[in-house]
Each structure stands twice: as structure tokens, then as C-alpha cells.
Amino acid sequence: MYQKLTRMLIPRIGLYFAVMLAFAGITALLGHREAAAAELAAVAALLAGYGASAFRRRREADRCLREILDNMDQATRNSTLNCPLPLVMFRPDSGEVVWSNERFLRITGGEERMFDTKLADLAPAFDTRWLLEGKDECPEEVELGGRRYQVFGDMARAASEGEESLLATTYWLDVTELADTRDIYKATRPVLALLLLDNYEDAVKSQDESVRSAMLSQVSRRLSRWAELSQGLFLRLDRDRFLLLFEEQYLNHYKEEKFSLLDSVREVVSPAGMPVTVSIGVGVDGDTFGELYRFANLSVEMALSRGGDQAVIKNRFTFEFFGGRSKETERRGKVKSRVMASAMGELAADASCVIVMGHKAPDFDAAGAAVGVCAIARMKGVPHYIVRDNVPTPADELYERVAKMPQYQEVFVDSQEALVRADSRSLLVVVDTNRPEQVQSLELLDSCNKVAVVDHHRRAATYIEGADLNFHEPYASSTCELVSELISYLMEPADLLPGEAEAMMAGLMLDTKNFTTRTGGRTFEAAAMLRRAGGDTSEIRKLFQTDLDDAVAKYGIIQNAKMYRQDVAIAASGRPVGRVTAAQAADELLNIAGIGASFVLYPDGDRVVVSGRSLGTANVQVILEALGGGGNAEAAGAQIPGKTVDQVLEELHGALDNYFDEEESAEPS
Asked: DSSP secondary structure string, 217-279?
């Protein structure tokens, strides 16, 4: 090594001597022998002088380099031996300790076994994989002898007996006091929770004052008992609204018990048989109390938009859900519909044009709702368009029927043309979805300044934020029902075209399974209004007809269904099938005695699609949310990319196991 460094410091001028010798040779060839001899003598003299000078320089450089390197080795040895931190050298492949200083031996209690010792014997909790991954800091603190250490280190190659091996050096920094202070800080950070009685007014409606007081007293007693566990500040903000401020160290307890208050409050039942339910919104990880309150408010809104009777935790990044398994009941009044209709009318009238789009692969409900919004825009005299890309969708037959109407000759545009037509005053109406990743064109959603959302699905962790109008009712049977209510306040049934009424009626019939599921009084009011507008049910029935091949495929799926757990039927198809066919198969399985929930899985390109249906015995939305899907309690779906049908089937089994295990654990013993 010394010689190599020395050679690098000595200039190489051999080329110059070669050139001078070449000139002397050329001079001799030209016949000037005396001159050539003189040149050779001069070159020899220069070479001798250079050799002597180079020898002296090499010897001096060698002496200086040896002195520097010897001093460095001594400094390295001194710094290693006298390191103020516990230090250990070991072989990461075998865990054999090569050397450690006394400080490390003291913290590990290994003074008597310094040699032939494994690192795992001295520090059992220490994992060395991070060194092999090329990191210079252990990702987790290491607890040793009641103290906590942050470990730093690196690896080098060392030669031993002619063989190279890896040698790791680690330095252990005691951070016990810092870590304890950090933990105390995290444990005592404030958490703010808002508790809202979802249906208290409905539960005590038409009841005597004594009954109202007794029910409210029972609920308040349960709320207070639950809040006492956190030793926090519990206040009543209104008759049906409460605030709880507590420390974060108690939040894990509430999570582990799955917010038992939900079940406790549900035990309070009115004389009419209606249980009281509560929605809990929790705000965590906020920088200020104002931000915590905003997070809690968003959580309560999220809980209500998902049907109530559940707890939602909101931090600065995402939502976390608990509960939400009870069957939804209709809890909405006509006041909100009237207000939303007025707002929608004003937004449409002020817009330069109205653009409507639904979710990817729109169905009859999305298509019918889009047609209904176009009817409102037509009544306001505003240009209107429906986004329809050139890809097959379940709503194609309905779209083709509507496109034949004279009023809809120029209405259908693809997403790129919609982007061109949109300007700063355009109104984008999103129907039948509230999740940005599910819309037909995310680019169009981001481009429009004014956005309105009309949807009936329970809200997921991701949703369209900042909408100018958000008509979101998870208790409605379909989006077409909601749009029908808007139309009833903005125009007369006679102003609605028969083809438009039939399109919306088709959406109603699809999502209610011909008015057999998720129906309420408002559903039949919407159907009656559409019937008065000229909707022909015999024409609508033709939209639901399937050809023979689809019917055979549907019953082939049903034939391969297998029972799982209690009353769940799962049909996994290894071949692609139509989306409508799969949905119909899932619906058809529910007509079989003994089946309360059904799931159909099939591949679709590089993803696997799951359709879930339920008669109310299981909440398929909660089940499929574990797979990244969504929907509502009785009809939900999921699209899982990058996995096979068998892998998704295994994940579905796990989600079902978790769901029913939690259901069983929540049942009173």
C-alpha cells in the first residue's frame, strides 16, 4: 500500500526520455554521429540526475506516508478503545462477538464472557438485519437492561486467515430519558370526540314527557359511564350532542373494545321498539384544539353519511371505522331535499353548461340519474352533456335508447370532449359515487371549479371534497330516487320526457331489485312521480332481459357456488364474465333458501372484481371495505388489481372470518 501511494506521488517522465532517445537515433541515421553522441550523453546525464532525485523524493514520500498512516492507525485504535459510547464488533453472518469495549459489557452484563460469545446472548432483542440492508441506523429502539438505546453502525470487509468476511461495528446511544419524555408527550396529547344521538327525536316521537326523560336519562348514564374510563372532560353541548376531551393514551382502550358505547346505547329502546343509536366522531393528531374539533366534526359527518351507529377516527391523513353493522333505517326529511333542489337549480342556472358523469362502467342507476340531471338543465335552458366513453358498460342499452330521442342527439360526449367544452363557469355533476378514484374521468373532476355530488352509497375514507353541493343520502334506495326528488321540486312531471322517466325508473328498479330491497316510502313516491311522467314499465322490463348465453353463464356461476361460514354463498369464476351477469348471479343466489349473503368473484383483465349482496344478515360494505371496496350494507363491490382469483378468495375468507368473529364477540353472553 505504501509503495502504491509513493508511486502515485512521483511524476512519470519516461515518455520524455524516450522522445529524446528517438531524436538522437534520427540524428545518427542522418549521418551526424558526433551530434548524436552528444545527445546521448546529455540524455544519460539527465537520466542519472532524475534517477537520483526520484530516489530521494520516493524515500521522503515513503517516510511521510508511513508517519501519517501510523498516526491514523494509532488514532483509530485510541478512539475505538476510548469510545465514550458502548461499542461492539461482531460478525453479522454468525452473530459472533469479535470485540467490545467495557461500556458495552457493563450494559449487557457480559463482563465474564467477553470471548466466544454470541451477540444474541448479550442482547436478545437486537435485530441486525438493518446492517445487511445497508442502513447505518437501527429503525427501532433496542431495550436492554431496563434502558433504551438507539443503535448506529456500519459494516466493512475484514481479512482473516486469507479469507474475507463481514465485520459490523455498532455504537449504542442511551436515549431512555428522551424516549420516555416522547412517550409521555404522545400519551398525553389531547383527543377530542363528538357524540351525536342519531335518531333520538324519532325514537321519542309521540311519547310522553316522562318517557322522553327516562330514555334520555338512560342514554346519558351510559355515555357518562363510558366517558369515565378516559378520566376526561365530558360536556353536553345540546340535547343530543356531547363533547369528550381526553388523553391519547386512552384511545387504544376504546379501539380494543370496538367502542362498546355503540352497543350499550342501542340497548335503550323506545316503547315503539326503536333503539337509540349514537355516532362518534374522534379527532386525533391535530396541531391545535381547533383542528381537533374540525377532525371530530368531519368524523361525525362521515359516520352519519355511512348510516350512523358507528365510530369514526380522523387524523391528518385518513379515517378509521368502527361499528356500522346495524341495518340502516330511513332517517331523512323532505326539508333537505327541498333545500338541495333549490341549490341545484341555482347552480345549473348560473352555469355555462352542465356536464354529468357517473362512476366507471356506469349502470342503470348512474345512467338514469345522469339523464334526470340533464332534464333539470334543459328546464333551466342550459347546455348539458353526459360523459360516455367508447368502452362497453352495463348501461349501454339504456344510453342507446336515450340517444335516439331528439333532445339527446348532441348530449353524449367522451371525457376528452367534455374537457374541451368545460370552462370556469361549467357545473360538473357526479352521480352514483362519492369517491374520486371511481369517477369516469378524474382529470375532468380536477378541472372543474364547480362540482355537485348526488349519491346514495355510504361514504368511504376517500370522498370528493370541496363540492359546491353534496346531496348524499345513504338511506335512499338509489341515486335515481334522489334525482327524482330534486325534479319534483324544480319541474312538473309533465315537463319530464317519457324516455327520461323510463331511464330513471330503470335505475330505481335495478337498485331495489324490482322494489323488493332498500325501499322506503320516498322510493314509491319517486316511482309514482316517474309513472305520472309517462314511464312505461313494460318498456323498462325489456332493458332487464338477458340473452341465452348470459343466462347460461349466470346459472353456471350459481352452480359453482359454495357455502362458507354461516349462510354465505361464494362463487368464484376462473373466466371473465359480464359485470351485469355477475351482479345478477349474486342477486339470484339470495333467492335460494338458507343464503343470507352472496359473493361472486371473476377476473377482469389485470384485476379481480367482487360483487357482494346481502339480505341484511351481514353488512357486505364492511366486509368488502377490507378488500378496498365499498357500497352499502346490502349491495357492495370491490376491484382488486394485481391479484389472482384464488388470492382474492383467500382474502375474502379472511374478511368474512374477521367480520363474523367480531359479531360473535360482540353478542352478549
From this structure: HHHHHHHHHHHHTTT-EEEEEETTEEEEEEEGGGHHHHHHTT-THHHHHHT-B-TTSPBP-EE
